[in-house]
Amino acid sequence: MRVSAKADYAVRAAVELAAAGEGEPVKGERLASSQDIPLQFLEHILLELKHQGLVRARRGAKGGYWLARPAGEVTVADVVRAVEGPIANVQSMPPETIEYAGNAESLRDVWIAVRANIRSVLEEVTLADLVAGELPSSVAALAAEPDAWAAR
Amino acid sequence: MRVSAKADYAVRAAVELAAAGEGEPVKGERLASSQDIPLQFLEHILLELKHQGLVRARRGAKGGYWLARPAGEVTVADVVRAVEGPIANVQSMPPETIEYAGNAESLRDVWIAVRANIRSVLEEVTLADLVAGELPSSVAALAAEPDAWAAR
DNA sequence: CGCACTCTCGACCTAAAAAGTCGAGAAAGT
DNA sequence: ACTTTCTCGACTTTTTAGGTCGAGAGTGCG
After folding, report:
1. Residue B36 and residue B8 in contact, taking contact as beta carbons nearer than 8 Å
2. How far, in Å, CA of A61 to CA of B68, rounded?
3. Could you tell me the end-to-end alpha-carbon distance of chain B, in angstroms, rounded to an integer?
4. pLDDT tens per residue across span B86-124
5. Residue B13 beta carbon within 7 A of nucleic strand C
6. Is A48 (CB) below 7 Å from strand D?
7. Min Cα separation B61/chain A (Å)
8. Quick one: pLDDT band at residue A79, thresholds 50, 70, 90?
9. Domains of chain A, with CATH numbers?
């Protein structure tokens, strides 16, 4: 139950692009250094984001990357899905396709509920929210709970 | 963002033990066949559950496994943690220990919120709930949403 | 006691995924 | 032309997932 380095990198790079705004494109190297991500790895990630239509790029001296849409219209879920594929839950199968035998029948509903709850966070938060440091209230409320910060 | 086969197996085996109740112990082979899990892999999983104090076992002809606690006092989170360790979120680090640079600062709160939301499902559902097929209302409500069943 | 049965547990194995590196090439701008 | 920066396939390396094997040790029965 973990988020890959790649997905984490992708979101951080996207946030950095969101912060840069509509001006001139941001170079890969600057993204890499400002978020401390290996440059060549990041280039592959940005390429995937580009292929998914989230990012645009131009080469050459005045080149770089920028967001294809306004930062307020790109969610964290969009970015994570672009690099990790669907937020699949169990054994790399989407939970709704799994049939459990007998006593474990209801387990599917549990995984469905987990996925729904993950989505409800990732699909609500936009890159603009992150840059502004103001998360949607439902998400902020979750993060404000002291219990949420306890390791377990 | 996925649950490993191991964790899935562990929960299913635990549910099966819960269903067997307080009578005589259940043999590994019966757990394996009723939930269609490779026996020798399952044995290792059961051993981990035993080491974590969730399960007890006895060898010999009348041997087998049983739950160390009543099924109503064992949550899915307990079982998942026993075999996967903490529900760590990012890059195998707990999110509360991560420091993000500048613009990505609020990202930590997002991962914290995600983890909190995962926990809120897994810590609420007990093995007894699963056997009875009656999930706690908050979880049942999530699973009842048609949107929750859509692939994405 | 002896024996069958079942759990215990470390060693091993293979395949895939994660994480990252390299290098040649192709557009952009000056 | 020339430099810069993105493009992208190929490759490497490390770790994890998912499993198998086989020797041993505890349990209960006849």
Report:
1. no
2. 66
3. 13
4. 998 898 899 999 999 999 999 999 999 999 999 999 999
5. no
6. no
7. 25
8. very high
9. 5-149 (1.10.10.10)
Task: Note the CA–C1' distance, A21 to C22, in angstroms.
Answer: 32
Q: Which residue has the tokens 């680090």?
A: B93
| pLDDT for the residue numbered A83 | 97
Cβ proximity of B128 and B71 under 8 Å = yes
**Nucleotides in chain D near protein beta carbons (<7 Å):** 3-10, 16-22, 25-29
* Distance of A9 CA from D12 C1′ (whole Å): 21
Note the pLDDT tens digit of each residue in A100-118.
Answer: 999 999 999 999 999 999 9
In 3D space, the residue among A69, A61, A83, A57 whose CA is nearest the CA of residue A21 turns out to be A69
Reduced 3-state DSSP string for B86-151: CCCCECCECHHHCCCCHHHCCHHHHHHHHHHHHHHHHCCCEHHHHHHCCCCHHHHHHHHCHHHHCC
In B, minimum Cα distance to A92 occurs at: B2
- Look at residue B23 in the predicted model and tell me its pLDDT: 82
CA distances A60 to A33, A56, A57, Å, are 19, 14, 10
Residue B1 is given by DSSP the state: -
The pLDDT of residue A88 is 86
SS3 A126: strand
